[in-house]
Amino acid sequence: MLPHSPLPGARALVAAAALLSLVGCEIPGLGPDPRVAQRDAEAKAVGGACRHAMRGLEDCFTLNPKASKAQVFAGWKEMDQYMRENKIEGAPSLLTQLENKPADKRAASPAAPDEEVLEDRPAPRAARNRS
How many CB atoms within 10 Å of residue 46? Predict the structure, then answer.
């Protein structure tokens, strides 16, 4: 037979005190995975970068298929609000500039009449002395 405690419910009081002391503790391994938080933060940054590069959301989703669409949108929206509040103009991305660039350089910018147009030719190789 178990001995009776002098206070009724003392075991319950001790158990409650133990549980309350553990409530504020963070037990390692039970929190959210840091890789998930990192992926979400990266997707949000991608969305912000897309907005700053004046890209549409659909293009951003297409260029970043592994990123969470919800986080990309959140980053895009946050950057849009920031840019509007601070009157910041977007910077066109280099990727879109390369796509729109004409194949022939001379067709894009005609030379002025006093400038000489030099064609791209390989430099002559040094003469080899074969003796």
Answer: 21
Which DSSP symbol is given to 124? Answer: P
- The CA distance from 89 to 110, in Å, is 30
Q: pTM of whole model > 0.70?
A: no
φ, ψ (nearest 5 deg) of residue 92: -60, 140
Of 109, 129, 127, 126, residue with least CA distance to 117: 109
DSSP calls for 50-99: HHHTT--HHHHHHH-TTS-HHHHHHHHHHHHHHHHHTTPPP---HHHHHH
What letter does residue 47 receive in the DSSP assignment?
Answer: H
pLDDT in tens, 14-28: 777 777 676 666 667
If DSSP codes are grouped into helix, strand and coil, which group holds residue 48?
A: helix
32 DSSP 8-state letter: -
